[in-house]
Amino acid sequence: MRAVLQRVTRASVEVAGAEIGAIGPGLLILVCAMQGDDTAKADALAAKIAKMRIFKDDAGKMNLSLRDIAGAALVVSQFTLAADLRGNRPGFSTAAPPDEGRRIYEHFAQAMRNEGVPVATGEFGADMAVSLVNDGPVTIWMDQ
Fold first, then answer.
1. Residues assigned a catalytic role
2. Along the 144 residues of the chain, how does pLDDT read in single tens digits?
3. Nearest 5 degrees, angle CA 115-CA 104-CA 4?
4. Computed over its alpha carbons, how large is the radius of gyration of the chain?
5. Which of 24, 83, 113, 123 could lock 90 by a disulfide, CB 3.0 to 4.6 Å apart?
6. What is the distance of C-alpha 36 from the center of its chain?
7. How many domains does the chain have?
8. Within 13 Å and on the Cβ side, how many CA atoms surround 141?
9. Whole domain around residue 75: which residue ranges?
10. Nearest of 59, 72, 90 to residue 132 by alpha carbon
11. Residue 143 lies in a domain
């Protein structure tokens, strides 16, 4: 699985002009299921993200996790994270097929909830407008 984490003070996602998910402080998580990924990888990624210490403590150091700050996650599917950039036009053949990608994406969102993190989501396969205020900015790219 591939993910991009953005530490945010707030984030939201709209589909067809209607807001379908929003959070306050926490993480915007753009996630892509890759070919060969399974629910075990989704579980491992969720556990790692929930424990990752990337929020500031009282001394201003990145020493607190999403759970420590009682933050939320906005989980948005983004198959373009699988982009193959060898040419001038990206290819996405390394992304999981749509049905499998949806299943793993939904499992990942639930795995984040199982880690004790409140979760809002985008809509798999939809054309979405994502808004965020990046805090820091802190942006982290991950492969699991």
1. 78-80
2. 999 999 999 999 999 999 999 999 999 999 999 999 999 999 999 999 999 999 999 999 999 999 999 999 999 999 999 998 888 889 898 999 999 999 999 999 999 999 999 999 999 999 999 999 999 999 999 998
3. 70
4. 15
5. 83
6. 19
7. 1
8. 2
9. 2-86+94-134
10. 72
11. no
